[in-house]
Amino acid sequence: MTEPRNPGISSLPLTVPVQTDSSSSAVEMDPVEYTLRKRLPRKLPKRRNDVYVNMKTDFRAQLARCQKLLDGGGHREICVHGLGLAINRAINIALQLQASSQGALQLAANTSTVELVDDLEPEDPDEAGEPMTRTRNNSAIHIKVFYPDPQ
Amino acid sequence: MSGAKVKMREKKMRNQPLSVQYPSAAMDAGSSTQNGRGTSTTDRQGPAHHRGGWLRGHQRDRGGYAKEMPRHLTGGYFAKARAAEVSAMLKAVKKTTGSCHVFGALPKHMRRRSMSHNIKRLPHRLREVASRMREKSLQAGAKKKEQTKSKSRKARRRHGNLLLEFNRRQRKNKWLETHIWHAKRFHMVKKWGYCLGDRPTCKCYRPCYRAMSSHCLLQDLSYYCCIELQGEEDRLLASLSQLTSKETGPTFSAALCVSGRRQGSVVMYRAERYPSQALGPVSFLWRPRKQGSTHRQLWIWAHPTMKQELLSELQTVCQCFEAVVTPVVPVVLPPTKVVSTLELELKADETPEATQVPRAKRKRSCKDVAEPPAKKILGDGTRSPSTPISWKSSSTGIVINDLTMEIVRYRLIGPHSHSVLTETLDAATDCNEITKSHPSSLWWPEHCKDESKMTLHQQQTDIFHTLKGIYSSAELPSGTVLGLTVDDPRLTLPTKKVKALPCVKKAQEVDEEKRRELMLRGAPEDCCQSFLWEQSVRDNVTENKISEQELNRMRSEVLVPGTRLRPTPLQGRVPVLLVHQPGKQVGHEMSSWGAGWDLLLPKGWGMAFWVPLVYRGVRIGGLNMSLKHSQNKGAPHFPHDYPDCQAGVRFQEEQEAELLNKFKRRPPAKRTNYIKHGCLAPFRCPWQQLVEEWELITKEGREERKGDSQTPNVTGSDTITEEMTSPPDIGVTKPPSHFTVLRNQKSLRILSLWCRPSTSKGQRLCRVRDVAPLDSSAVTAFLSAHTMSLVWVRLSLLSKGKPELHGMICAPVVEDLKLLGKKVDIQGPQEPPHKNHVKSLIKRKKTGSKKAAPSSKTEGKGSDNATEPDPAAAAEGLKTSPESSTDATLGLWPDPLPSITSHCSRVTLGWVTQGDFSLSAGCGEALGFVSVAGLLHTLLSQPKEHRGVLLLRNPTSLHYRFVKINIEV
């Protein structure tokens, strides 16, 4: 993932939720001197009913996975997480699930901010000195999809 | 008659009585008459027509039936003659042929396997003979065994004798400290002067992959050689800079690496020879600076195959030629030199004083007096003690130490490897006041007295605890180093295997700020310091290790069984270094896959750390897995994928010999006919020839373009002419220049952009920076610098298929790309089967040689005519004839290969050096090299939307598959 730093480009596809350059960088780097290397977003332990949505996997496949968890997986609730560009898709999945359940499912959405880490590696490391690391923030959404309690 | 037939006949005749012989159809008539006459002299007088019974049919040369029929016959003579014959016959029937076992007397359907050991299964009449033979064979067997076996098993397994035996066995090939552990569980191979585990005997390919991608895989990398350089910083940097080039990325002088906070890696070349003559990749680690000192220490870790070259090259650039003769201390060290009271007790058993123990040990002690007790070999066992391992220079003041086998290196791969480490290791506990007050020969109590050292230890411990709060090893900056002193991990060994997992609760407890700091910057500079760097501490720790036996004794004395030993014995403090290994760094997919940690230990402590690590639920991988690891990372693996290094060339030769042997072991009818598959070199990759041919093609193309400004398009007719012309041309025009592998980061980046299709998603990426778009002028400029280069590429298959070793990477023609455009069913094109010219050639040669020898003339003339080769093949045949006579294997091209590039219907660009179904990508993936000239030539002629699509064909198949090319920087 070595793309020369260029504020115009949106992110490259990642395995885990895709993020975009939403926050404008505080320090403007000389585009020639540095290589940008994005680290993966921090992972947290995952339960079985957590679904992290990304932009690489087919949408229908992700929807089917959620459906399967709710129907056959024996979970009363699942959490759909989306980061950055994938927020839209996470919402889409949650709504589709709700629509296909004829109102049996309910949604509860939460938003949060995730801190991401970028490494800036100087192309000529001997002279430029230390490679820099900076953090930026990106938005995330966590949607709880659940069957409401019977009472 | 062929040799085999003669032999068979001889065997048959061996036990025959002399007077009776069977005539055979193959024998000519003359001999049969001889036979008839020789049957018996008495027969002469007997009636000749009886002989007709022996001879079948009409005997030609006797001219009909016997001329002179006897008029009368004498009864007595006749009966005598028949009696002799009958007795001979009976004798022949009784005598068993072949193996002289009794079973031979039985018809096949009556034989049973159990008869061989149970005589009572045999028919009664044969039992006596069988029992006699059995006795005989038993006696013979006993005699033979007597010779080989010298000691009883019990004696052999006795500890001292076993050690002697082990030491003898590791004289030739070094054993790692985990050798015995591995030998029980792995297929061991002898490679590079070591005995190494190749792959586990159990079936665990997928579990190992899963361990790498989701938990942790452990490998013993102690066979990697460590070379230590000591000297002034600027002098070291100045001499090392000759061996590297900044174009290939960060070098030894990268600021972060010099500070000692990060481990670096670099490809080294012979002095001032970049870009040719590569030595190979190394990783290196600087020791952090001490205050006010410019004296630095540097460790270079290299693969054993390149060690000698690297060492000699380092000696040249550092001008270190004076071998420092070290006193041969470690070998003849008396065991009671630096030991605590505890050790003394233990060792007393082994020293000759133990002879006072009256009976039990008399035998052993006698021997002990004769020779010193066998000592376990630690470190390098194959090296003779007089070999210098240290060189210094009087002019530059640099000292080079060869630390091979001095430091144990374990690699943990996987996102949870840090949690395995935090579970296994415990930061060293402080020693109490009483021990502090006494002077001690151990290193740790001495260190405890020093306040500054203890604060440093506290800092390191804090950081190590922070590590628990991290979920994945990939979150840390790549190459982070952390020094640490830990307790003996055997003390905290769990009773059962448990799987180490990162703990969520711990994550909350750990200070958030510290965790952030660690993630962003890694460990601070002073925390990278470790006492592992100091020779004296290393020796002390190795010398004073508590033996397993002693530890078990101490455990047995614990009041509550199974609890931890308290207080921790003083010897159980070990300095270690933890080095973070970056995962996949190139490419867009699966980034930082396979990240992990390396654990460096002083020698002698290998097993003490290995077993506790294994008890944390890690998988163990062998050489095979490290290959797969680098394959999934898309990185070249050292001896395999460095064709420009000496070690790589050697590896390729070995591999070729091995594959060829394997090929020849198959019966000829079951071998793949590589000629028919159009595969010129199935067992090796003639890179040099490939590069030379492509250079020629580009040159021709340029001239052609100058002539009529037309892009060269290699068509069928083109290939034929090339096939005829190119090989001799190369010899004439080209001064020998060796191919190189392109490692220049900037050029690779440009090439990587050119390879992408310029549509949709690719468009966005291509826009980056002002890289010249792909056109002929840019290509010409690029090629002027890198004509003789190969470039490392990753190929992913677009459809099904599994690429194999030495598969051919080819350029598609225009029709193929049209096929791809339809998208209905992307089956690749087929290669038409090739004609096997070489076969007929070999055959002809064979028949020719037979004709020269007068023995056989049975070969049909007609068949010879039918396989008369066409003129083109004849021309080739003339070319190949002198060599093919030496060693021609059917199905393989004899040695001077015809033009490689244009041998098949699609032009060859390169070969695959690693190929497999990639579990991480979910499709077939291949890694290999292509010629830069060939690649650019192909890319230029491709339409924009299909740019970067190539064809891949396995050596054993005629089917081309579409692949997508990726050059990752």
TrEMBL record, chain A:
Entry keywords, A to Z: Cytoplasm, Nucleus, rRNA processing, tRNA processing
A GO cellular component annotation in the UniProt record: nucleolar ribonuclease P complex
Biased composition (Acidic residues): 120-129
Listed GO MF terms: nucleic acid binding; ribonuclease P activity
InterPro entries attached to this UniProt entry: Alba-like_dom_sf (IPR036882), Pop7/Rpp20 (IPR014612)
Location(s) in or outside the cell: Cytoplasmic granule; Nucleus, Nucleolus
Subunit record text: Component of nuclear RNase P and RNase MRP complexes. RNase P consists of a catalytic RNA moiety and 10 different protein chains; POP1, POP4, POP5, POP7, RPP14, RPP21, RPP25, RPP30, RPP38 and RPP40. Within the RNase P complex, POP1, POP7 and RPP25 form the 'finger' subcomplex, POP5, RPP14, RPP40 and homodimeric RPP30 form the 'palm' subcomplex, and RPP21, POP4 and RPP38 form the 'wrist' subcomplex. All subunits of the RNase P complex interact with the catalytic RNA. Several subunits of RNase P are also part of the RNase MRP complex.
Name of this protein: Ribonuclease P protein subunit p20
Organism: Betta splendens
UniProtKB/TrEMBL annotation, chain B:
Region named Disordered: 1-61, 132-158, 350-389, 701-735, 825-891
Biased composition (Polar residues): 30-44, 709-724
Record's keyword terms, sorted: Nucleus, tRNA processing
GO biological process: tRNA 5'-leader removal
Pfam families named among the record's database cross-references: POP1_C, POP1_N, POPLD
Ribonucleoprotein recorded as keyword: no
Every POP1 C-terminal domain range: 789-969
GO terms under cellular component: nucleolar ribonuclease P complex; ribonuclease MRP complex
Residues in Pop1 N-terminal domain copies: 78-156, 165-231
UniProt feature, compositional bias: Basic residues: 1-14, 47-57, 835-849
Nucleus keyword on record: yes
PANTHER family given in the database record: RIBONUCLEASES P/MRP PROTEIN SUBUNIT POP1 (PTHR22731), RIBONUCLEASES P_MRP PROTEIN SUBUNIT POP1 (PTHR22731:SF3)
Protein name as annotated: LOW QUALITY PROTEIN: ribonucleases P/MRP protein subunit POP1
Organism: Betta splendens (Siamese fighting fish)
Gene designation: pop1
